[in-house]
Design goal:
Elements lengths: L2 H14 L9 H14 L17 H10 L11 H14 L2 H12 L5 E4 L15 E4 L4 E11 L6 E7 L10 E7 L5 E6 L8 E11 L4 E2 L5 H18 L10 H10 L6 H29 L8 H23 L9 H16 L6 H12 L20 H7 L1
Parallel strand pairs: 1-4
Antiparallel strand pairs: 2-3, 3-7, 4-5, 5-8, 6-7
Helix pairs in contact: 1-3, 4-5, 4-6, 6-9, 7-8, 7-9, 8-9, 9-10, 9-11
The protein binds flavin-adenine dinucleotide.
Flavin-adenine dinucleotide binds next to strand 1, strand 3 and helix 11.
Length: about 400
């Protein structure tokens, strides 16, 4: 048995000994993170001096494989672990790493990521939330939207306009902000799954100390790209861990239960779904091998993110086509899961960058095809008529 096999065996044994509660709350998730941390399974590849384990991607993947068959209800930490933490590891100051990384890994502090605004989603560089330096602190005003888990968050990474006189990508700065500041107003939004996965947030004269700038002042665009690259890889490759309710096994089992497998069209659709899932899993495995070998996927993370979104939508489609109205008028836990997958699918094609934007990135940066035209790229932001700015001045 190799060291890695032994590592996997221990991880499986640990996970089996720590079953998730039936209806886990945020405090259950915090407690589970603390247990994972104490057992050495939180921040497996993060630097040891900031609370990580300092191990390799091989152990990380082995642990993720071990979690495939169990429920690990720590989604509320997903943004912190998958995006904010890795951004701080890459470009945070020494003080920021020392202050924030360990409590994140121990489940003491929840993080959110505030990029999107009502007038700036795909074109996030058009953002209008502003931070002005008053000689002592940055004063933040504006609005963000679609911010996942903000209703539970203690800290967040935010990007704000700090210089409107330069082109839009050049006058943005990234900050850490305290989500408990009285000037931060978080309002949950209900989505079509019936739950509140994300929020709108209003900022009213929030004071940010200069040492909370992440990276360089006005260098926030490259900081944001760092976060987004981590986000796409984390969403796409993290999918091994998530429970895909409309996955082949679930849909096929329900079709069998309902005696639908005699229909050759149903069988054809199931085979197609199976093949797409296998292709996705194989690409995922290949990228994991590359990561293990020290090759970060970079813009190619958009490929896996796009394929996961398409697979999620496709599997929900196949499920509803085969199972018919049962899918929404459900009376069993299994059909209920598929109904939720149907309602959740479209969100996968938006969050972390839309399918169209993923295709643009793949064309521009993976395949080297001609770039999308960007007529406003070199104009000072102040002169642009974008989003709510356009409405305000109309
Ligand atoms: C579940 C979920 C969680 C999210 N969590 C967060 C979060 O935690 N933090 C955060 O900051 N944001 C979050 N978002 C927001 C997400 O990043 C945005 O929804 C996304 O970037 C798209 O922006 P938009 O909604 O403003 O759509 P728009 O940008 O207005 O796009 C509308 C449509 O136009 C298309 N389009 C736009 N530009 C182009 C182009 N150049 N070429 C071709 N087509 C184009 C888009 O593909 C889309 O179909 C979340 C979204 C979802 C659904």
């Amino acid at each position: 048995m190799t060291d890695l096999d032994e590592y996997s065996r221990k991880a499986r044994a640990w996970l089996a000994g720590h079953p998730a509660p039936a209806d886990p709350s945020v405090s259950d998730a915090r407690a589970l993170m603390a247990q994972l941390y104490d057992a050495g399974y939180s921040g497996i590849t993060w630097p040891a001096e900031y609370g990580g384990q300092g191990l390799t991607e091989a152990e990380e993947r082995a642990f993720q494989q071990a979690t495939r068959d169990v429920t690990l209800p720590i989604n509320v930490f997903g943004i912190g672990l998958g995006m904010c933490g890795p951004t701080l590891v890459s470009i945070g100051s020494e003080e920021q790493k020392r202050r924030y990384l360990r409590p994140l890994l121990r489940g003491e502090e929840i993080w959110c990521q505030m990029f999107s605004e009502p007038g700036a989603g795909s074109d996030v560089a058009s953002l209008q939330t502003r931070a002005v330096f008053d000689g002592e602190a940055w004063i933040l005003n504006g609005q963000k939207v679609w911010t996942s888990v903000a209703q539970h968050a203690d800290f967040g990474l935010i990007i704000a306009r700090t210089d409107p006189e330069v082109p839009k990508h050049k006058g943005i700065t990234m900050f850490v902000i305290d989500m408990h500041d009285p000037g931060v107003d978080v309002r949950p939004l209900r989505d079509m799954t019936g739950q509140s996965h994300f929020n709108e947030i209003f900022f009213d004269d929030v004071r940010i100390a200069p040492d909370q700038v992440v990276g360089e002042v006005n260098g926030g665009w490259s900081a944001a790209v760092t976060t987004l690259l981590h986000e796409r890889v984390s969403i796409g490759m993290g999918s091994a861990r998530t429970d895909r309710p409309a996955a082949y096994e679930n849909v096929a089992a329900t079709a069998r239960e309902q005696r639908l497998l005699e229909d050759p069209i149903v069988v054809d659709r199931l085979v197609d779904l199976y093949l797409r899932e296998r292709s996705f899993d194989l690409l995922n495995a290949r990228m994991s091998q590359e990561v293990k070998a020290g090759i970060f996927p970079g813009a190619r993370g958009s490929v896996i993110k796009l394929l996961l979104a398409e697979l999620t939508l496709y599997s929900a489609d196949v499920a509803s086509e085969i199972l018919g109205p049962e899918t929404v008028a459900y009376d069993s836990e299994e059909n209920g899961k598929i109904a939720r997958a149907l309602a959740w699918g479209p969100g996968m094609a938006l969050g972390g960058g839309t399918n169209e934007i993923m295709r643009n990135i793949i064309g521009d940066r993976v395949l080297g095809l001609p770039r999308e035209p960007q007529v406003d790229r070199d104009m000072p932001f102040r002169l642009l008529k974008v989003g709510t700015q356009k409405e305000a001045e109309a």
